[in-house]
Amino acid sequence: MKRAVLAVTLLAVSAGTAFAQVKMTWDASETDNGAVLTFGVPETDNSVLSFVCNKGNANVLISSHVGSKGLKADEAARIILTTGKVKKEFPGKAVANTESSSIDVEGGGKLADLKAVLTAGKAMSLEVKGVKQQVSLDGAPDAYAQFEAACQ
Fold first, then answer.
1. Which of 21, 24, 28, 151 is exposed most, by the fewest CB atoms within 10 A?
2. Angle between helices 140-151 and 111-118 (to 10 degrees)
3. Quick one: DSSP state of residue 45?
4. What is the pLDDT of residues 25-84, one digit of tens each?
């Protein structure tokens, strides 16, 4: 009887843990005008970062979706991405996120700077005013290569 109770308890804990963990992945998709690269939960709107490019343009729009602290909409802001010794800053502005009632940040930069941070290691730090979050780079180099090809 004790073994049966223990087995059911372990099964319930395992199922609860698996359900609570949502795996985020890197995904690139081509659009009519360029491409989108996202780190988030597949087939949902739940993402941490997204990048948008237009064909033939070396500039990229970078959007963080982690909120911020101390920013107001339309204030100057920046997104800082760091992987190992590679650190890139992307200037931009704070934007209101109506879905989460938070203030996110959008910035701009070059494809080459994005490539430098996404291919330099296994984990990246995403930082905006008041928020710092670790992001796995597992799968990022391959997704970036698809993104870059669609941008050119």
1. 21
2. 170
3. S
4. 999 999 999 999 999 999 898 999 999 999 999 999 999 999 999 999 999 999 999 999
Instruction: Please say whether the dihedral angle defined by the alpha carbons of residues 106, 88, 43 and 136, taken in this order, is positive or negative.
Output: negative
Give the chain's count of helices (H) and strands (E): 3, 9
The C-alpha torsion from 48 through 55 and 148 to 47, rounded to 10°, is 10
Token look-up 């963080």 returns: 64
Q: What is the pLDDT of residue 22?
A: 77
Contacts of 84 (CB under 8 A, 6+ apart): 120, 121
| Cβ atoms 68, 131 nearer than 8 A | yes
Tell me the C-alpha distance between 25 and 53, whole Å: 19
Tell me if 39 sits within 8 A of 49, measured CB to CB.
yes
Q: Tell me the pLDDT tens digit for each residue of 118-133.
A: 999 999 999 999 999 9
CA 19 – CA 138 distance, rounded (Å): 21
Q: Are 79 and 64 in contact (CB under 8 A)?
A: yes
Half-sphere exposure of 125 (CA within 13 A, CB side): 13
